[in-house]
Structure formats: structure tokens, C-alpha cells
Design a protein that fits this description.
Strand content: under 5%
CATH class: Mainly Alpha
Radius of gyration: 17 Å
CATH architecture: Orthogonal Bundle
Structural class: mainly alpha
Oligomer: single chain
Number of helices: 7
Distance between the termini: 14 Å
Number of domains: 1
Helix content: 55-70%
Length: 189
């Protein structure tokens, strides 16, 4: 008995890896594909372990390249201080993709992008405020807390725009590909 190759899985994997590596292109701060990549993985990978593993692996590999080559270990290697806030948030964003995008529609994807951006802002910037994470340390009081979140609003906006932009590309490209190549539609094996 021969085992069938799951073409859908390999196409999805390639899209996630390419999205992760596109972080290496010069961009506005936080205007990256990683939020869209996490939503995409959550929405499309049938195996939920792969839904989490593939986007997080792509994030890790691109982080290693950025930390090792671009920053030459300046912020830590292989990962930077506070990485657990970021990776935990992206695992949560995968969950948003799984739960919020059961049916691929523009409205569902856009809503998930907004929720992902807000979750990223709330969680990762709490980590910045709480632990300092390689930036000027904010005071550990209400004023420092508010200042940290206020200073992060431009990053929130860039993250939202990047997530929407790349979600349009990832979700749109895969939906078009499924129409052109019916073998990419959900497979049962």
C-alpha cells in the first residue's frame, strides 16, 4: 500500500515558511507577516499540532537569523529577552485562527486580524512594562504602565496593518489556489 502525499500540507507549510522568512525584508517596525502567519496556520492546518508548530517554528527560524546575523547577538542569541511573551502571544493568535476563522470570509479574517493585533499589543507590551525587555525601563507604577502602552500605539498600528496586509496575501492566495487546483482542498488523510 502506498501512502498518498498530502500536497495541501506542503503548500501550506511553504506559504508559512516564506511568510516567516519575509520578515528579513526591511520593513516598518512590527509591519510583519507573523500575525497573519499564525492566523493562517490556525485556520488551515487540519492537524492542530502542526497549526501551532509550523508558524512558531517559522517565527523561531526567522528570529534566529535576525538575532544571529542582523543584530549579531546584541539582544541575545538565539532569542531575545522576553521572547516568551511574544511566542505565547503567537500561540494564542494561532488559537484565534482556529476558533474565529472556521469559515474563510473577509469579515472573519479581518476580525481575527484586529483581535490578534490587540492581543499582541496587550500581552507583549505588558511584558515590556513588567520586565523591561531591552528597552528603557518603565516605572513599575500606573504612570509607567500607561506610558508603555501609549508609546506602543504606533507599533500596534503597524502590527495591525501588517497582519491585515499579509493575511490578504496568504488567505487570498490559498483560496485562489484551491479554486485553480482542487487537490489543495481539504484532504481526509
Amino acid at each position: 500500500m502506498t501512502k498518498k502525499i498530502n500536497l495541501r500540507f506542503y503548500v501550506l507549510l511553504a506559504m508559512v515558511i516564506i511568510a516567516g522568512l519575509s520578515r528579513l525584508i526591511v520593513h516598518l517596525p512590527n509591519f510583519t507577516p507573523i500575525g497573519a502567519m499564525a492566523l493562517f496556520g490556525g485556520a488551515y492546518f487540519a492537524d492542530k499540532l502542526k497549526a501551532y508548530f509550523m508558524p512558531l517554528l517559522s517565527l523561531f527560524l526567522s528570529d534566529m537569523i535576525i538575532q544571529g546575523i542582523v543584530y549579531q547577538g546584541q539582544y541575545g542569541f538565539p532569542l531575545y529577552e522576553g521572547w516568551y511573551w511574544v511566542y505565547g502571544t503567537f500561540a494564542l493568535i494561532v488559537l484565534f485562527g482556529t476558533v474565529m476563522i472556521k469559515k474563510i470570509t473577509v469579515a472573519n479574517v479581518l476580525l481575527a486580524c484586529i483581535v490578534a493585533a490587540l492581543a499582541h499589543w496587550i500581552i507583549t507590551d505588558f511584558g515590556v512594562w513588567y520586565s523591561g525587555c531591552n528597552v528603557a525601563v518603565y516605572t513599575k507604577d500606573f504612570n509607567g504602565f500607561v506610558l508603555c502602552y501609549t508609546m506602543a500605539i504606533p507599533y500596534l498600528m503597524n502590527f495591525l496593518m501588517g497582519t491585515v496586509f499579509y493575511a490578504g496575501i496568504l488567505f487570498g492566495a490559498f483560496e485562489l489556489a484551491q479554486r485553480q487546483f482542487p487537490h489543495l482542498a481539504k484532504q481526509q488523510y
